[in-house]
Amino acid sequence: MVEEVRALSNPIYSMSTPMAQWQSPLSSRFRQWLISSTTLLGILATGAIAPAVAAKLEDLYQLRQTGNCPNCDLSYANLRGRNLRGADMSGANLNGANLRGANLMGANLTGAILNSADLTRANLTGANLSNASLVMTRLDQAILTSVNLLDGILGGRDRLAKVENFTGATLPNGGPAIFPRPPR
Which band of pLDDT confidence, cut at 50, 70 and 90, is reported for residue 165? Predict the structure, then answer.
């Protein structure tokens, strides 16, 4: 470390010296770190790694053919607007899945993982979400009438405040959902 400080305080490393001529090991490591960090951020920003963690094709096919897919890997699947009424997806991995506007009335999602999933405007009337994980799940204008959330894991600031209807729902603690809706 002392040698690196001496190298940086050496007059030959002035601001007028081109960066390519710098011989400090610190600057070389920093450039490598900067390039790899920038590359990683670019990959994450464009979602280029999403296909590597996407849903299994055979699981998507099973859901499409039978309407059921217990314990399936449907992570990051695009199920937008799908009619999944009464579907058995207990124990399924729906992490990051797009379920915007999906009909999940009466669906069995017991123990399902719905972390970071998008359930905006989804109808979950009568669905069983007991022991399900809904951390950072979007529930904007979702309908959760008579849904069972017993022992479920809910998390994310103000996620439940945007739900359209909780009438008759059972919350993770076993209590009834009583959320007065402000008049529009």
Answer: confident
CA distance 169 to 146: 4
Give Cβ neighbours of residue 164 (< 8 Å, ≥ 6 apart). Answer: 121, 141, 142, 143, 144
* Cα(65)–Cα(51) distance, integer angstroms: 22
To the nearest 10°, report the CA torsion of 100, 51, 67, 118.
-20
Mapping DSSP to helix (H, G, I), strand (E, B) and coil, where does residue 154 land?
Answer: strand
Separation of alpha carbons 134 and 155, rounded Å: 7
Q: Does 3.30.70.3270 match the CATH number of domain 55-175?
A: no
Helix (H, G, I), strand (E, B) or coil at 143: strand
- Read off the amino acid at residue 43: I
Condensed to tens digits (0 to 9), the pLDDT of residues 58-84 reads 999 999 999 999 999 999 999 999 999
